[in-house]
Each structure stands twice: as structure tokens, then as C-alpha cells.
Write a structure and sequence with these properties.
two-stranded antiparallel sheet; alpha+beta
């Protein structure tokens, strides 16, 4: 089990990084924040978008926050706040990211 916030962050970031080869753009890649966006022009509920948030990972206030999926899809995901990371939680995050990617592909958002 990992309890060091930097180690937790780096482990999850490593799981997210392959998605940059699947159509997402990393806008912030620092020691405390990592995020992924789709830059595809889309329309969601009648609203045109030139960018759509996919995922972010942030070290803040003594924990790591992982968020997934855009506004308007909040029913699918709520942020995860972590102070420790075990293999089960990492697998859960990887599964959620894969499911989120599937939604983006099906909706042609990426």
C-alpha cells in the first residue's frame, strides 16, 4: 500500500499517460497536477464545445484527488480523494478510466 502522496500521484499518472496516444491532450503535466482533455469539436445537449475535460489528478491539502468525465456526466463519476493507494483501488481507477474512454469513443468525443 502506498501512502506517500507523490508516489500515489505518480502511479496513477502512469496509468493515465497512455490515453494521450488515444486522442486525449495533456494540458498540465507537473509534479502536482495532470489532466487530459479532448480537443475534438463536439456538441453535447445542444452546446457546442471545442474541448471536453476527461480526467485530472491533483495533489492538494494532504490528499490526491482524481476526477473523471466532463460536467454534465456527473452521474457517472464523483472525484476520488485518496491518502493511500492499494492495488484494488488502482485497478478500480484503471477500470473507471477505461469505461470513461469507452463512453467518449461511443459518443465520438475523441
Amino acid at each position: 500500500m502506498k501512502t506517500d502522496l507523490i508516489e500515489i500521484f505518480q502511479t496513477i499518472r502512469a496509468a493515465l499517460q497512455p490515453y494521450t496516444t488515444l486522442g486525449f491532450t495533456c494540458r498540465i503535466n507537473s509534479e502536482e497536477k495532470y489532466d487530459l482533455w479532448s480537443d475534438k469539436n463536439i456538441e453535447v445537449d445542444g452546446e457546442k464545445r471545442t474541448e471536453t475535460f476527461f480526467a485530472s489528478l491533483v495533489i492538494e491539502d494532504g490528499h490526491v484527488t482524481f476526477s473523471l468525465l466532463p460536467e454534465g456526466l456527473a452521474e457517472y463519476e464523483r472525484p476520488m480523494i485518496m491518502t493511500e493507494l492499494d492495488d484494488l483501488t488502482l485497478n478500480l481507477i484503471e477500470d473507471k478510466v477505461a469505461a470513461g474512454y469507452k463512453i467518449f469513443k461511443e459518443q465520438e468525443w475523441v
